[in-house]
Amino acid sequence: MIVEGNLDVISSHQAGVKNVVATSGTAMTTQHLEVA
């Protein structure tokens, strides 16, 4: 799951969602979404 901020990551983890990353206000591009 992709969320906006660090507190969103913490809240999600506390709710049981383990695969969460935060963009921290960075503009999302297609390069961010590519899988290596």
UniProtKB/TrEMBL annotation:
InterPro entries named in the record: TOPRIM_DnaG_bac, TOPRIM_dom
Output the CDD domains linked to this UniProt entry. TOPRIM_DnaG_primases (cd03364)
A Pfam entry, by short name = Toprim_4
Toprim domain residues are 1-36
Designated name of the protein: Toprim domain-containing protein
